[in-house]
Specification:
The complex is a heterodimer. By secondary structure, chain A is of the alpha+beta class. Chain A contains four helices and twelve strands. In chain A, the strands form two sheets. Chain A has a six-stranded antiparallel beta barrel with strand order 1-2-5-4-3-12. Chain A has a six-stranded antiparallel β-barrel with strand order 6-7-8-11-10-9. In chain B, helix 4 (75-93) runs antiparallel to helix 6 and helix 6 runs antiparallel to helix 7 (142-167). Chain B has helices spanning 3-22, 41-44, 52-70, 75-93, 108-111, 113-136, 142-167. Chain B is globular and about 45 Å long. Classes of the chains: A alpha+beta, B mainly alpha. The A-B interface holds A 12-13, 16-17, 20-21, 23-34, 40-44, 47, 50-51, 53-56, 111, 113-117, 120, 122, 156, 184-188, 248 and B 21-22, 25-26, 28, 31-35, 52-53, 56-57, 59-60, 63, 67-75, 77-78, 81-82, 84-85, 88, 134-137, 141, 144.
C-alpha cells in the first residue's frame, strides 16, 4: 500500500497533465465552434464588448469614408430612377410584381482573423437587430462569409477563408458554375473548382456568387481569375483566383437576409422524396 | 501559499490576456498572417513555488481563456497545458547548481540572459509547435506550418524579451 502511494505521488503530475491535455484535444477534434454554443465564442456579450473597445477600427476611418462615399455615388447613379419618398411607402407591402427577397443589415467587424485554417469574424449586430444563422455577409467589394452563431448583440461568421465549406460561385460572363475553395495559404488567393475544360477563360475574368445556395443573391463579386490550366487527368480546369476583398482590412459589412430562404430550403428538402 | 505571490500571479494573468487581445491580436504581419502569441508570458513568469499540479491547472485556465476569445475550442488549451508541463521538466533540466530558492523568479534580470534564452526559446517553440500543428491538423502544408512556427516563435520571443526590460526590472 505504501509503495502504491509513493508511486502515485511520483506520477500524479503526469496524470493531471494527461487528463487536461486529453480534455483539450477532445475539444479540438470535436471541431470548430458548435452552433448554438455562443457561450464559448467571442460572440459572447462580455467578450464582444471587450473587443469593441480596442482601437484598431479608428486607423482606417479615412479610407472607410472614401470607400463609402464611392459606393454611395455608385448606388445613387444606378438607382436614380427608383428614388422616391420612403415616408409615403411606410407599411406598404409590394404584392404587385416583384416581391422583396433580400434585406440588408449593417454591421461593423469587431474581430477578424486571416491566419488560421478556419477563420471566423465577429460582427457587432446580433439577434436584436434581426441577424440569424445562415445569413450571408458581404462587404461593398465582395463576399466575406456566412453567419454561424448569434447572440443578442453579436454574431459570429465563418469567413470565406476556411477549409470546411466552399462557396457556390459562377463565371460572370458565361454562367458556368463551380465553388470557391480557399487555398489555406494566402488570405488573398483561392481556387475555383468544377469548371469544365471546354469553357473559354481569360485572365481577369470575374467570379460572382451563383445564387444557388439560398444564402447570397446572385451576382455578388467574389474574385478575379489569376491563372488557369487544363488538368489532364479529369475534365476540369485548375483555376487560381484572387479575392476582390482585402479580407485583412475589412471594417464594415452588410449582412444579407434571404426572406425566402426557409421556403426554398423546405422545397429543396423534398428532393429526397423523389429519388428513393 | 503566499497571498502576495498569488495576487501577483492573477495580475500577470489578467495583463497577459488583455495585452494579447487588445494589442497583439491586431498585429498581422505579412501574407502568412503572423500574430505573436504573447500571452505565454504568464506561463513563463510563474513563480517557482507554485505547486506543479497548480501550474498545469493555470496553464489550462490560460489556454481556455484564449480559446474563448479566439473561438478555437481546445486549440490554445492543448498548447498551454503542454507548455506548462514542459516547463516543469525544463526547469529541472536547466536548474542552476544550487537549485531554485524561494523568492527567486524566472526573470531575465534575475537568472541572466543565457539561462533565460534557453528557458524561453525552448518553451515558446514547444507551445507554438503544438499550436500550429493542431491548427493545421496534420502534415499537409508542412513546410508552411514550419515556417509559421519559426517566424511566430521569433516574434513572440522578441516581445517577451522586451517585456523583461520594461516590466520585470529589478
Amino acid at each position: 500500500m505504501d509503495s502504491l502511494l509513493i508511486f502515485f505521488k511520483r506520477i500524479y503530475v503526469l496524470l493531471i497533465f494527461i487528463v487536461l491535455e486529453v480534455t483539450a484535444i477532445v475539444f479540438v477534434v470535436r471541431g470548430d465552434v458548435q452552433r448554438n454554443s455562443v457561450f464559448f465564442t467571442s460572440a459572447n456579450y462580455i467578450m464582444g464588448k471587450i473587443y469593441t473597445v480596442t482601437w484598431h477600427g479608428y486607423f482606417s476611418l479615412k479610407d472607410e469614408n472614401m470607400s463609402l462615399l464611392k459606393h454611395l455615388v455608385e448606388a445613387r447613379s444606378a438607382s436614380g430612377v427608383y428614388i422616391s419618398d420612403t415616408a409615403k411607402f411606410h407599411n406598404y407591402v409590394d404584392t404587385a410584381g416583384k416581391i422583396l427577397k433580400y434585406r440588408y443589415i449593417t454591421a461593423a467587424i469587431v474581430k477578424n482573423s486571416v491566419s488560421r485554417q478556419n477563420n471566423f469574424i465577429t460582427l457587432d449586430a446580433g439577434s436584436l437587430k434581426g441577424v440569424k444563422e445562415d445569413m450571408g455577409v458581404v462587404s461593398p467589394d465582395g463576399v466575406v462569409g456566412v453567419v454561424v452563431a448569434v447572440s443578442d448583440h453579436f454574431s459570429l461568421a465563418l469567413s470565406v477563408l476556411n477549409k470546411k465549406i466552399g462557396f457556390s460561385a459562377k463565371l460572370k460572363n458565361n454562367d458556368f458554375y463551380g465553388s470557391i475553395v480557399w487555398t489555406g495559404k494566402d488570405y488573398r488567393k483561392a481556387f475555383l473548382t468544377e469548371i469544365p475544360n471546354h469553357v473559354e477563360l481569360k485572365k481577369g475574368d470575374t467570379v460572382v456568387t451563383s445564387g444557388y445556395s439560398a444564402v447570397f443573391p446572385v451576382g455578388i463579386p467574389i474574385a478575379t481569375i489569376d491563372t488557369f490550366e487544363k488538368n489532364s487527368d479529369d475534365n476540369f480546369y485548375k483555376i487560381s483566383v484572387t479575392f476582390l476583398n482585402d479580407l485583412k482590412s475589412l471594417n464594415n459589412v452588410l449582412i444579407i437576409e434571404n426572406l425566402m430562404q426557409k421556403e426554398q430550403l423546405e422545397l429543396e428538402g423534398l428532393e429526397s422524396k423523389f429519388v428513393q | 501559499m503566499d497571498f502576495r505571490v498569488y495576487s501577483r500571479l492573477f495580475l500577470t494573468y489578467l495583463l497577459s490576456v488583455l495585452i494579447q487581445i487588445m494589442v497583439f491580436h491586431n498585429i498581422n504581419i505579412g501574407t502568412l498572417g503572423i500574430t505573436p502569441l504573447f500571452y505565454v508570458l504568464f506561463i513563463l513568469m510563474m513563480p517557482y513555488e507554485v505547486p506543479a499540479w497548480f501550474q498545469l491547472v493555470l496553464g489550462f485556465v490560460l489556454g481556455w481563456t484564449m480559446d474563448v476569445f479566439c473561438d478555437t475550442p481546445g486549440l490554445h488549451t492543448s498548447a498551454t497545458v503542454l507548455m506548462a508541463y514542459s516547463r516543469i521538466k525544463i526547469l529541472e533540466m536547466i536548474s542552476p547548481r544550487d537549485g531554485y530558492e524561494t523568492g527567486m523568479h524566472p526573470y531575465l534580470m534575475e537568472m541572466g540572459i543565457h539561462w533565460f534564452l534557453k528557458y524561453s526559446i525552448s518553451l515558446i517553440f514547444i507551445h507554438h509547435t503544438a499550436y500550429f500543428m493542431l491548427d493545421s491538423f496534420g502534415f499537409d502544408n508542412f513546410s508552411r506550418t514550419l515556417l509559421k512556427i519559426v517566424l511566430t516563435g521569433l516574434c513572440t520571443e522578441l516581445f517577451i524579451i522586451f517585456s523583461q526590460y520594461i516590466a520585470y526590472r529589478k
